[in-house]
Amino acid sequence: MGAKVKEMPVVSKMFCSSTQVVLVVRTRPRVVGGGGFVVTDLHSQAVEFRVDGCGVLGKKDQMTVTDADQTPLLLIRHKGGIVEALSLCKQWGGYTQDYVGTQKLVFTLKDPKACFANNRPVRVSIEQKDENIYCKDFWIKGYFQDKECSIMDSGGDVIAQVGVTKEMKKMENKDLYHVVVKPGVDQAFVVGVIAILDYIHNGSTRC
Questions:
Q1: CB–CB of 73/89 below 8 Å?
Q2: Within a 13 Å sphere around the CA of 38, how many CA atoms are in the beta-carbon half?
Q3: For the chain, which terminus, N or C, has the lower number of CB atoms within 10 Å?
Q4: What sign does the CA torsion over 116, 82, 62, 180 have?
Q5: What is the pLDDT along the chain (207 residues), one digit of tens a residue?
């Protein structure tokens, strides 16, 4: 028997698979009441996540990640406030919400454009206080706008890889790309990070 896969939940362990998962992202047209993207499993072709942005929500700098049943998983928005104003860095926060509507910040991402760090790795900080958490800082390396980037843990191991398959390149469909998520990694967290990158780089989640 093989070693048990270590789960790395950020949103929920429900989204941590014991095997590698390949997700396909299909962006929706940026029209009134539209935009955002749908995430499916490459093999089953089942919808796993949906991301709605400004076109659906009617609010700038805000997105939602829902599951296949459109149950809310993450609210993503600008953190704002005096800390951001003093740092000159625009920060994004990913929030979960409990059954009474209380929001909890689970991760923060610094906007590379606002921080004058376009060619540097982008930091994603996990806000959980649990001392046993697998990793408190992740880094995004590469160029998301070209759909060639990786999310790495603090040890330099790739936990998710954004890319375009040869088949997708042949189709010449710029609205389609894939994300390879390593075993044990929280897929909802990865989709939340990608939603922010999409917005930053003027993708389908913007108005």
A1: no
A2: 13
A3: N
A4: positive
A5: 456 778 889 999 999 999 999 999 999 876 656 679 999 999 999 999 999 988 787 788 899 999 999 999 999 998 775 555 555 678 999 999 887 778 999 999 988 765 545 668 899 999 876 665 667 899 999 999 999 999 999 889 999 999 987 777 666 667 899 999 999 999 999 999 999 999 999 888 887
97 phi, psi to nearest 5 deg: -140, 130
Amino acid type, 19: T
**Considering only CA atoms, which of 188, 193, 204 is closest in space to residue 92?**
193
Instruction: Report the predicted TM-score, pTM, of the whole model to 2 decimal places.
Output: 0.89
**Phi, psi for residue 101 in degrees, rounded to 5:** 95, 5
